[in-house]
Amino acid sequence: MNAPSLPGPLNDNPRLDLWVSFPAPGKVVVNTGRVELGQGVLTAMAQIAADELDVAITRVTVRSGVTDGMPNEGYTAGSQSIQFGGLAMGQACADVRALFIARAAKVLACATDELSVRDGAFYRNGAATGQDYWTLAPAIDLAVNASGLARRKASADLRFVGQSSARSDLPGKIFGDDVFIHDMKLAGMKHARVVRQPNKGASIGTIDEASIRRAAKGAIEFVRSGDFLAIVGDSETAVELAGAASVNHVTWTNIETPTPLQQEANWLLQRPVIDRLLGPPEPSDAQGKQRFEATYSRGYLAHASISPSCGLAQYKDGHLTVWTHCQGVFPLRSALARTLKLDPKAITVHHVQGSGCYGHNGADDAAADAAVIAMQLPGTPIRIRWRREEEFIYEPKSPAMLVKVRALIDSAGKPADWTAEIWSGNHNGRPGGGNALLAGYALPDQEPLPQANEVPEAAGGGATRNADPLYDIASKRIIHHMVTETPVRVSALRGLGAMPNVFALECAIDELAERAAIDPVAYRLSITTDMRARAVIEKVAAMANWQTKVPGGNGAGRGIAFARYKNRAAYSAVVVDLEVDEEIRLRHIWCATDGGLIVNPDGAINQLEGGVIQSASWVLKEQVRLDGGTASIDWDTYPVLKFSEVPPIDIALINPTSSDMPLGVGEATAGPTAAAIGNAVSHALGIRLRDLPLTRERIMAALLQE
Amino acid sequence: MTNVDFSVNGKPVSVAIDNEDTPLLDVLRNELGLMGTRFGCGLEQCGCCMVLIDGAPEKCCAKPVSSIAGKNVTTIEGLGTQDAPHPLQQAFIDEQAGQCGYCLSGILISAKALLAANPSPTRAEIALALDGNICRCGSHNRILRAVEKAAAVMRGA
Ligand code: FES
Ligand code: FES
């Protein structure tokens, strides 16, 4: 018999003892390579494990994010934790349960199908046997590979999966416990701040140490390696003051001074690019059909995590230990090994929770900073916390994107041919992808790094993510121009290219509906045969009472948009009601999502709602400004949505207890929300705005042009 | 070295500092080991560091500790414990109000000050009272619901 294929992360880490152990009577420990980012993943993993092992959820402890003795699942990103990591966890637990059942049958001299498990205890035809996981564990070797043969629980037999489990990580955050990496204290620890190299290639000119020491108002020392300069001291207050002052007391050569022109997406049009065509070539003539063409864009976005990044490190007896809140401890370990010229075996990386990251923020770089300093001060634990301004300036940004949509429209007003032509920087600047850690640019003797590759299509694509419409269109293609040099460092932010692409595509669909004089909901349904897509569109229209839509152009708008994230994760449709005069006021948002089987419904709703709000913030307010450098340096120069600006939001899950495979939901709402807002604004004003963010200035300019 | 005397969560404290401008936040976290009050910006913009000073909600990341001599400071640790949660904390758990949770200490403090001044706030009033607190994860509506719920509990409704 052929062995069944194992779910990805289990295939990469097949040994069962990496996943499950029974360390003490009544206790189960499961390990996941996924890390808690505030998305509730550890709670969901406990639910999955409890069901597959048939133990009470209170017995399950979930460990995560250490490079020793744990599955390597790469990054916790892309809404894949449950869709793939959960699948692996479930199969590993099912295989473990099967091994124990087989062992129990031998011990009890009975057939395996006479046995059942209840809260960890084994029953034979319903009668207690005195055996449980913990009595049997000493005789079972879990240092074996998963077979993938054990059958997973049928959805009707799930007790924990599908329930809204309270998140295990939340109470500590509500009672102000020391749960964040920022709260860690190591004996003898020193605080540090980096005097940041303004850009790759910049070199230190002069250092006015005396002025920096004066500003510190406390003892500090300098640590330097090449153009990497740090300030270290016992007092965090002193190093913070010194760090802030150092900006004015250290000079640099080879400084880049980006201009406001470079912050706009259309600047990308004149840059060197690497081109790709995905799909058939674009037809040169219109084949008697009407042409549609429109250009949509979005500027650079910051992750703007609420807390600046933090990292701790200690180098002792030839071993480097690093604590980080990054999304992938294994890839960080490889990048550290490369940057510091250490054997990966000489490095242990621990994940500790930070504030929400939504992608590749400064976390990896802060960990590297701490490690570089720790290597220079052997034995001393080092804690670095970036300054607020440092996080805004130096975190990798989500690339600006410009998307041209061209379509050929048939006589019924439907698209027959579709082209999405995309200009964008790379969405994959993660250190594991061969990219530099920030400190690496400043350190001496670093190996040159290869040109970074965009996220492959097999992983959902980066700039091309969701550029391919799910609608029934006979001929489609994506033309991708990857811009190789961007004015700011770029990398992954929640959904990668999905938000700008869905914004472009779903606004274009609305423009086509308008040209055809067909209602936007009816238009979408007329070009969609995917039943699950139709179901979310119909559901959200019903939730919002779509047909009560008022005529447009009066300042009140209603818009809809739809996407299936990556065209293979969750389906989401969103309706937005808003008002516009000079500014946009969101009035209500409805969202319907089909994410297959939902492990933790309340947790999923929390994620979906968070995605809606973050996307609304991106669309209404956010763009990184450049002016001689990054000019978005704090919450005044990079404002985000405030409490009083968040509208009521209703979320409906479609068939959450279905037997359909769980689909990632964390990033499903960003695109549809952005486009629904765009469509609602156009409905309200009778003018189409195609460039994000939809700021007051842009709205005023558009109104004046009319 | 100067000494600054004040009280935190009802207990008198005396801290010796070199630099009188040391922010209260640094003293709470690094001298007194009270890590519940978080650093977000150091610029009085985000609300992560909100504490009550003589009952009034204040951002303490840029507030010199010398300026609070003789005053009473309440931090998140002074609200309640897992065994005896404040009604706000219970409501936040009930509503699962938070994602990363980094913003919550400051938000709970702002909410406590609001409910002390206005026991029956409307949702709009709660939102306005929390506008000095940033939540980047988008937990806003759950937080608003939790504050409404706590207000009702505290009114005995
Ligand atoms: S840390 Fe004090 S307001 Fe941001
Ligand atoms: S829950 Fe993460 S910032 Fe509010």
Write out key terms for the chains shown.
heterodimer, A: 706 residues, alpha+beta, Aldehyde Oxidoreductase, domain 4, seven-stranded mixed β-sheet, six-stranded mixed β-sheet, 28% helix, globular, B: 157 residues, Ubiquitin-like (UB roll), DNA polymerase, domain 1, five-stranded mixed β-sheet, 5 helices, 34% helix, binds FE2/S2 (inorganic) cluster
In short:
With about 700 residues, chain A is of the alpha+beta class. Chain A contains 17 helices and 25 strands.
Task: Give the helices and strands, then pairings.
The complex is a heterodimer of chains A (about 700) and B (about 160).
Chain A lengths: L7 H5 L7 E2 L6 E5 L8 H13 L6 E5 L16 H28 L6 E4 L2 E4 L2 E6 H4 L33 H5 L15 E6 L7 E5 L1 H8 L4 E5 L2 E6 L2 H14 E4 L19 E6 L11 E9 L11 E7 L2 E6 L4 H12 L6 E5 L11 H14 L5 E4 L2 H7 L6 E9 L5 E10 L13 H5 L32 E9 L14 H18 L4 H7 L4 H13 L12 E9 L6 E10 L3 E11 L6 H21 L27 E5 L16 H16 L5 E2 L3 H10 L1
Parallel strand pairs in A: 2-3, 7-17, 13-25, 15-16, 19-20, 23-24
Antiparallel strand pairs in A: 1-2, 4-5, 5-6, 7-10, 8-11, 9-10, 12-20, 13-18, 14-15, 14-17, 18-19, 21-22, 22-23
Helix pairs in contact in A: 2-3, 6-7, 12-16, 15-16
Chain B lengths: L1 E7 L2 E7 L6 H8 L18 E4 L2 E4 L12 E3 L12 H8 L9 H14 L5 H7 L10 H16 L2
Parallel strand pairs in B: 1-5
Antiparallel strand pairs in B: 1-2, 3-4, 3-5
Helix pairs in contact in B: 2-5
The structure holds FE2/S2 (inorganic) cluster (FES) (2 copies).
